Amino acid sequence: MEYLLHICIIAGIYYILTLSLNLVVGYTGLPSMGHAAFYCVGAYTSALLALRLGMPAWIGLPAGAILAGFLGLIIGLPTLRLKGDFLAIATFGLGVIVYQIALNWVSFTRGPMGLPGIPGYSIFGWEVDALWAYLILVVVLCVFSYLIIRRVVKSPFGRVLRAVRDDETAAKALGKNTVNYKLLAFIIGAFFAGIAGNLYAHYITFIDPSSFTVMESVTILLMVILGGMASLKGSLVGAVVLVFVPEILRFMGLPSSIAAQVRQMSYGLILVGLMLLRPQGLFGKYRFK
Amino acid sequence: MPILEAQNMKKHFDGIPAVDGLSFEVEKETITALVGPNGAGKTTFFNIITGFLEPDSGEAFFYSNGSKRDISRLSAHKVARLGIARTFQNIRLFSQMTVLDNLMLASNSRKHENLSAALFSKSHVSRAERENLDRANHYLEFVGLTGKIDSLAENLSHGQRKLVSLARAFCLEPDLLLLDEPTAGVFPETREKIGGLLEKMREMGKTILFIEHDMHFVVDIADKIIVMNAGKKLREGKPEEVIDDPAVIEAYLGKELP
Ligand SMILES: Nc1ncnc2c1ncn2[C@@H]1O[C@H](COP(=O)(O)OP(=O)(O)OP(=O)(O)O)[C@@H](O)[C@H]1O
Ligand SMILES: [Mg+2]
User: Fold this and answer.
1) Quick one: pLDDT band at residue A259, thresholds 50, 70, 90?
2) Which residues of A fall within a CB distance of 8 Å from B88?
3) Residue B231: CB within 6 Å of ligand 1?
4) Relative to the alpha carbon of B180, which ligand is closest?
5) What is the pLDDT of residue A43?
6) What pLDDT score does A260 carry?
């Protein structure tokens, strides 16, 4: 039971990551390969605020999200003028850089030693330490993220995002300042990844750079693709399936020494199978061209 | 009264001139055809006027509401906002969106498309959306595709896509329409229909500059023809004056002209 609650918490955190990346990749068509960078910033910001300044987690939540959004702005401004492939490479580079900073700025982040002893959540003096309580917190933030992002994508603003995805040139010819729209989508995506980072840091209570590698970005992207581009329901399914699959593999008695490799291989298999059988993902409304 | 005036426009690609000192005027509330052999620089000229390319030199002036503006170095979305709509040779619909969404995106007012409107202002958005919907329905009926309103753009036939791209440009309710080969590749009936639509737009006070290869069509509906060759203006004038000109026939390398 405990174990199931734990998996559900992790799936909820990935749901927020997948949802936010789907806004960027699925709805706006920006091939973002470094989403874990924003997740990382959200986690480290909140953890450092707690450990260095004694700030509670619920202050780290908006702080981490805003800082992640700000990083989105800084990175987006120069790169969102680039065309697809270049943007993919630039965001990939971002993922590598943020990871390397977390790894090598030892005096600030403690590098590979990580940050242990991150305090949990306490809200108005109530300690959220039971697993079920933390799960409720995660679910509340999942619902919040879902409602905001749904509102964004269903609005005329979201329609412009899809127009930019389908044909940026045509969108410009209709008077849309497309760079602005791409930038805003990127910032919102980063902001919600920051929220996921905060939830992760205060749940696990220990973070180190290994949770925010490029492989992590790829995993989130795979969740988006599996569930389906431009589908909010798909994001939930993509996140839940890819969090549960490795657990099921482990349950089937796979020795832990090869578990990681098998997990990555199963991700690869899912991706290849998907591209062959159902390129738009399980619930996708948008196909790669 | 001119609405658009190009002065000595030049654009080179890797040292090769595509538009090479082009000057002309487009009169208000007329239909002007821009013709010329493949590679003459017609589309390049459109791209410069609409802000998708920056000219090497030259100016382009747009006259609206009694003022004159240099638009030659304005970015594309700003040109569109001044009241210049364009279509593309390769159509460029939002292919994975419905016809309705394609048209709803073509709106002169843009406040309802802000992020803040999405997050906070419901009533303003729904008012603007109602107007958008009415306009979309109106122009879809105008081009005769009411039945296709919920189809995905990518599922339409070539001719239907051409018509939707016209309707989308009309929805912007611009003063000036630049149409890049609006009838290319469509059946003769559709071509006739499009001719009728353009004439109706002119009656409604719009100005049209369009690129076209079919000389019969041009002679039928254009008030003026501008013939381009190798980036330069070859001839300009009334259709019947221009098409018999030996230099024009020469440029088309003996292609049959009516
Ligand atoms: N982006 C570009 N980069 C390099 N060369 C270009 C570019 N766009 C156009 N050209 C070249 O400029 C010349 C003019 O092209 P343009 O597309 O304007 O011709 P056009 O008159 O529209 O022809 P068509 O009737 O075939 O559409 C051509 O030689 C073309 O190859
Ligand atoms: Mg052309």
Assistant:
1) confident
2) 169-170, 173
3) no
4) 2
5) 96
6) 74
Report which bound ligand comes closest to the CA of B47: 1
Cβ(A179)–Cβ(A80) below 8 Å: yes
CA-to-CA distance for B225 and A86, rounded, in angstroms? 42
The residue among B101, B96, B102, B103 whose CA lies nearest residue B155 is B96
Cβ contacts of residue A76 below 8 Å, gap of 6+?
A: A182, A183, A186, A187
* Nearest Cα residue to B32 out of B252, B202, B246: B202
Q: Distance, in angstroms, between B241 CA and closest chain A CA? A: 34
Section A50-54 average pLDDT:
92
Three-point CA angle A242, A12, A41, nearest 5°: 95
**Pairwise CB contact (< 8 Å): B52 & A160:** no
Let me know: does B98 contact B40? Beta carbons within 8 Å: no
DSSP letter for B98, please: B
User: What is the CATH class of B1-83+174-258?
Assistant: alpha beta
> A95 vs A192, which has greater pLDDT?
A192
Tell me the C-alpha distance between B38 and A97, whole Å: 48
What residue ranges do the domains of chain B occupy?
1-83+174-258, 93-172
What is the residue-averaged pLDDT of chain A? 91
Return the ligand 1 atom nearest residue B46 CA: 18
For chains A and B, count residue pairs whose Cβ atoms are closer than 8 Å. 95
Whether residue B253 has pLDDT greater than 70: no
A29 → chain B, closest CA residue: B96
Nearest residue to A183 via CA among A22, A34, A70: A70
- To the question of pTM greater than 0.80 for the whole model, the response is yes
Q: Which residue carries 């492939």 as its tokens?
A: A85
**Is the distance from the beta carbon of residue B102 to the nearest atom of ligand 1 less than 6 Å?**
no
Are B94 and A162 a contacting pair at CB < 8 A?
yes
How high is the ipTM of this complex?
Answer: 0.94
Q: Which atom of ligand 1 is nearest to the CA of B228?
A: 21
For residue A188, which residues of chain B lie inside 8 Å, CB to CB?
115
**What is the C-alpha separation between B31 and B98, in angstroms, rounded?**
30
Which residue minimizes the CA distance to atom 25 of ligand 1? B38
pLDDT digits (tens, 9 = 90+) for A122-166: 887 778 788 898 999 999 999 999 999 999 999 999 999 999 999
